[in-house]
UniProtKB/TrEMBL annotation:
<feature type="domain" description="Starch synthase catalytic">
    <location>
        <begin position="3"/>
        <end position="232"/>
    </location>
</feature>
<dbReference type="Pfam" id="PF08323">
    <property type="entry name" value="Glyco_transf_5"/>
</dbReference>
<keyword id="KW-0808">Transferase</keyword>
<protein>
    <recommendedName>
        <fullName>Glycogen synthase</fullName>
        <ecNumber>2.4.1.21</ecNumber>
    </recommendedName>
</protein>
<comment type="pathway">
    <text>Glycan biosynthesis; glycogen biosynthesis.</text>
</comment>
<feature type="domain" description="Glycosyl transferase family 1">
    <location>
        <begin position="282"/>
        <end position="442"/>
    </location>
</feature>
<keyword id="KW-0320">Glycogen biosynthesis</keyword>
<dbReference type="GO" id="GO:0005978">
    <property type="term" value="P:glycogen biosynthetic process"/>
</dbReference>
<comment type="similarity">
    <text>Belongs to the glycosyltransferase 1 family. Bacterial/plant glycogen synthase subfamily.</text>
</comment>
<dbReference type="InterPro" id="IPR001296">
    <property type="entry name" value="Glyco_trans_1"/>
</dbReference>
<dbReference type="GO" id="GO:0004373">
    <property type="term" value="F:alpha-1,4-glucan glucosyltransferase (UDP-glucose donor) activity"/>
</dbReference>
<comment type="function">
    <text>Synthesizes alpha-1,4-glucan chains using ADP-glucose.</text>
</comment>
<dbReference type="Pfam" id="PF00534">
    <property type="entry name" value="Glycos_transf_1"/>
</dbReference>
<keyword id="KW-0328">Glycosyltransferase</keyword>
<dbReference type="GO" id="GO:0009011">
    <property type="term" value="F:alpha-1,4-glucan glucosyltransferase (ADP-glucose donor) activity"/>
</dbReference>
<dbReference type="InterPro" id="IPR013534">
    <property type="entry name" value="Starch_synth_cat_dom"/>
</dbReference>
<feature type="binding site">
    <location>
        <position position="15"/>
    </location>
    <ligand>
        <name>ADP-alpha-D-glucose</name>
    </ligand>
</feature>
Amino acid sequence: MEIIHVSAECYPVAKVGGLADVVGALPKYQNKLGHIAKVVVPAYDTKFIRENDFEVTYDAWANYGNNHYQFRVLKEKTNKLGFDLYVVHIQGLTDRPNVYGYGDDTERFIAFQIAVLDWIVQWEHRPDVIHCHDHHTGLIPFMVTNSVKYAAISGVPTVLTIHNAQYQGQFGWDKLYYLPAFDLWKSGLLEWDKDINPLASAIKCAWRVTTVSPSYLEEMMNNARGLESLLRQERHKCVGILNGIDTEVWNPETDPMLGKSYNIKTVEAGKLANKTALCNVFQLDPSKPLFTFIGRLVDEKGADLLPDIFYTALQQHGDHINVLVLGSGDNWVEGRLNQLKDIFGGKYNVYIGYNEQVSHEMYAGADFLLMPSRVEPCGLNQLYALRYGTVPIVRRIGGLKDTVVDIGDGGFGVCHDQTSIWDVTHAINRSIELYNDKKKFKAVRKTMMKIDHSWDRAALNYTELYQILK
Ligand code: ADP
Ligand code: GLC
């Protein structure tokens, strides 16, 4: 089957979070199954796009509201990612350093989606599936079935994967004229709660909807930022498919970003070497357990509680633990996390910013990784932690619930029920006990590292889903 993934992110082309990791890996595994999986993303001004060779495969003009703009679809020449990568360049709209965060993001992503469909509609053949990811590509299912100019591809199945229903991309009806012409009586398919809502529209119009873990699908029926009733109505076409990880990128045995590589047999020495190096850089003590957090500093990750959680834990156990944080996001949280450095120097440190290299070093060097998320559709950090022998401390929610089993239940992680200071500090206490039981700690590490979370299984699940649509 030929599958074209349309997304705002794709690792290593442009990454903000887990969406990039998924879109950068799933197609590779689909190709291994014999499919032809392709990816198309906007041509941002990123290092990958600047430093790799692309050739123009399509050059055209498109209408976008009252604007007539030129766009280009470029293909990466060497297939180095394991799939055909296409980037859509729209001058002045896509060619910026960041993926999101501009005042005209709505216009940017509408233009991108129109360009993608203008390109696909003139292919000599039809793809078997157009697979859209999150709200940035959520108008595609509607446009494919309803826009007059895309009538030739109106029979092509569309699939939506919801990576995070917290973000829906709503905008006002004053921007309706940006969309290519359709019968206005169909406007209801775009609408949710009085706005044009790309995510809601995709839930209505896509042939199938997937979410990135079975538990998150169930949770969304009661907690999806206003989309609950819609999801309940469309439940029959939804399925939860747990994400995998790219075991070629995330492999402590071959990871070029690590000072010392290791595998399940050499995990103790390997992790100690990486921990020592990391602690030297961040002025921490490698003889103590290292607790870490990596991620976007936003409420859904429980980041607003992190300063108090670490303050409390360091007050209680300051001479016996280290804490290291990597993340960026909310300014208030960033500020408070920085302040803790003055109080707990030598036991605590934080790197505010995005740094892929440091994240790999942390998965390898840490003993524990915290994820006190309020919402976690899947979560990839805990899967990377497992593969690198780092014990995840997670809230029982979404994908975390589906992938981490508590040590009290014969498992390999530390789980808690609520995103609260008390629950997390209690989990930290339990983790310290585990760390001090050296025999058990070593056994847990080995159990974790044996778990197979590669994309092989999930890629098959997607194949089964696409086949229903044929
Ligand atoms: P989300 O997509 O909601 O942010 P995930 O757990 O699915 O959460 O994926 C997060 C991805 O982003 C992981 O690959 C993680 O290592 C990475 N990441 C998050 N914040 C940072 C950061 N500050 N520096 C480097 N990598 C980060
Ligand atoms: C989203 C979710 C995260 C998930 C990722 C990849 O960003 O917040 O839980 O792992 O998408 O699907």
